């Protein structure tokens, strides 16, 4: 049973001031998850979470995470600029980008960010761009093949195809990159990899860590490079469906510790710091999209039209992703109506739910669409002239703060040339 982090009474108060649709974030939940992550890796003295800015690029969210000791993982010029403006500096910024334009490497270097190279050719591209190679540098690894984890009755619990992913270097290339970087003056080396997205398994990070730790030991021997950090990146998931189990970050941290002690410590590499770049795990459950039912339509199927659309939350439209829906005030009512819950885009994929069993929905009901706190508002777009909604923060004292206003038609018009 998924519970919203906000009550009907609270929401009724909020909508008196801010019209739906809007994204609402739960400060308390964000802080609790950030602290649980820190505790899970407290055994590793250099541990740092670099929050993946792309998941929820809101300055107030970034500031909360900064207070919780997180750095930021940026992948573009704008994300670097936002992080800089939020007070992140130097090694608090990880720059994990791909197909990177020169100006982005230049800004990352200027800010003192740790640069994570996606390709062997980027070694010389970086040097030619900024005129030097930073003392501390990281390379992204792609093992190729198929990555699988734990077989269940339905098949593999986690399966992804790194061989189809555009990211990272091959095993041979990463050794070449390390050797070249060392030749050009690098002194501290890091390894990064992202093999599977939204994993619902406590085994993903430990399995990934084992692969990277093993490779770090080999690379140290092959190249003589001093590897000082290993970046497990993102990919720890959240249970979007109510019947899915949640990951236990303490168990995950413990699994990584075991691999660390089995592989790195005996190789004399017990000083390696770990990093993570979680986005979804930290933020998804602590944000929701709040929308109002404004139309019902009975044709070949039963439709509920809401005032939000895929422009506010794209994941159902582009991935067919499940997002749980709570009809506020009807939590105890039987789910005896089958609806498609739809937005207004002239795109038939603009459906938040298809054939979903829900309580009877009346016009004016408030719907909470769960787990929209990461890759939600951030993926928004303006198709059909549907503008991006506001973002609100439910603060720890129970009050609500506007942390991004809704776009207005003027925002949409301002980039056009009118005459
Ligand atoms: C998207 C991304 C992340 C965050 O992924 P989540 O699934 O949100 O944890 C981390 N690192 C990199 C390089 C990414 O591209």
Structure description:
- The protein has 419 residues and is an alpha/beta fold.
- The protein has twelve helices and 19 strands.
- Strands 1, 12, 13, 14, 15, 16, 17, 18 and 19 form a nine-stranded mixed β-sheet that branches. Strands 2-3-4-5-6-9-10-11 form an eight-stranded parallel β-barrel, surrounded by five helices.
- A hairpin with a 5-residue loop joins strand 18 and strand 19.
- Helix 8 packs parallel to helix 9.
- The model has no long low-confidence stretch (mean pLDDT 97).
- Pyridoxal-5'-phosphate binds next to helix 10.
Task: Assign an overall shape.
Answer: globular
Mean pLDDT: 97
Question: Beta fraction of the residues?
Answer: 15-25%
Bound molecule types: pyridoxal-5'-phosphate
Task: Give the low-confidence spans.
Answer: none
Radius of gyration: 23 Å
Helix content: 25-40%
Largest sheet: 9 strands, mixed
β-strand number: 19
């Amino acid at each position: 049973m998924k519970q919203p982090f906000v009550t009907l009474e609270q929401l009724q108060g909020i909508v008196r001031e801010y019209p739906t649709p809007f994204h609402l974030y739960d400060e308390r939940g964000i802080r609790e998850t950030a602290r649980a992550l820190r505790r899970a890796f407290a055994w590793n003295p250099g541990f740092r979470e670099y929050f993946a800015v792309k998941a929820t690029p809101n300055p107030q969210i970034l500031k909360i995470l900064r207070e919780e000791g997180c750095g930021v993982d940026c992948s573009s010029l704008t994300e670097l600029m936002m992080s800089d403006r939020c007070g992140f500096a130097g090694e608090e910024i990880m720059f994990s980008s791909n197909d990177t334009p020169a100006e982005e490497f230049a800004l990352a270097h200027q800010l003192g960010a740790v640069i994570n190279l996606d390709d062997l050719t980027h070694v010389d591209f970086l040097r030619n761009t900024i005129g030097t190679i930073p003392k501390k540098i990281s390379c992204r690894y792609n093992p190729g093949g198929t990555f699988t984890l734990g077989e269940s009755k339905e098949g593999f619990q986690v399966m992804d195809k790194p061989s189809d992913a555009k990211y990272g270097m091959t095993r041979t290339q990463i050794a070449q990159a390390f050797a070249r970087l060392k030749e050009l003056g690098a002194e501290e080396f890091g390894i990064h990899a992202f093999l599977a997205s939204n994993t619902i398994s406590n085994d993903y990070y430990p399995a990934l860590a084992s692969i990277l730790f093993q490779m770090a030991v080999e690379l140290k021997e092959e190249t003589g490079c001093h590897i000082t950090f290993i970046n497990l990146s993102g990919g720890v998931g959240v249970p979007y469906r109510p019947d899915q189990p949640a990951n236990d970050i303490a168990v995950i941290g413990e699994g990584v510790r075991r691999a660390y002690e089995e592989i790195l410590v005996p190789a004399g590499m017990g000083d390696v710091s770990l990093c993570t770049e979680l986005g979804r795990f930290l933020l998804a459950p602590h944000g929701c999209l709040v929308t109002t039912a404004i139309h019902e339509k009975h044709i070949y199927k039963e439709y509920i039209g809401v005032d939000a659309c895929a422009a506010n939350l794209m994941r159902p439209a582009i991935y067919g992703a499940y997002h749980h829906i709570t009809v506020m005030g009807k939590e105890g009512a039987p789910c005896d109506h089958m609806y498609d819950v739809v937005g207004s885009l002239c795109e038939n994929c603009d459906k938040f739910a298809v054939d979903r069993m829900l309580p009877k929905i009346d016009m004016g009901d408030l719907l909470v669409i769960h787990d929209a706190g990461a890759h939600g508002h951030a993926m928004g777009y303006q198709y059909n002239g549907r503008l991006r909604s506001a973002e609100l923060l439910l603060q720890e004292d129970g009050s609500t703060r506007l942390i991004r206003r809704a776009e207005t038609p003027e925002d949409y018009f301002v980039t056009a040339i009118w005459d």
